[in-house]
Amino acid sequence: MVCLGNICRSPLAEGILQDMAWKAGLNCTVESAGTNGYHTGEPPHHLSIKVARENGIDISNQRSRLFTAGDFEQYDRIYAMAMDVLEDIKHISRNKFDEKKVSLFLNEQFPGEDREVPDPWSGPESGYHKAFEIISGACDSIVKNIQLSKES
Ligand code: 4NP
Question: Which of 31, 64, 81, 130 could form an SS bridge with 39, CB 3.0 to 4.6 Å?
């Protein structure tokens, strides 16, 4: 799960997908990273922590880290929260970039529509609730898509 700062959107995506995967009995490891490194080592934004907690998910132990080209060796799937993040991933990864592993996150729920998760950073709390709702919908689709792929 990749966004810019790894403090607002992708920590929510990590927490929500990990929670849904556990509940669905899927054995997958979910992690998140950011492409800009401005907040490396910091916990998620306090409003991401608050909104997640209100929805029964604790993301307070996460720490922001920079996305690296090595993540292409470590992970099977890489999800970008928005188009600028996808471009950053390409620049950071160079010859390690593997387009088969990368998707715009919301394309899991809305294939081919290239929708983006709006960045709530520096906005009001309502933006974090909206982000939680949008991210939850896509995480639900990811879990369902994994289950379908296991059945076939
Ligand atoms: P995020 O939000 O990418 O959802 O974590 C941002 C947080 C910080 C910055 C940009 C986006 N920043 O430029 O510091």
Answer: 64
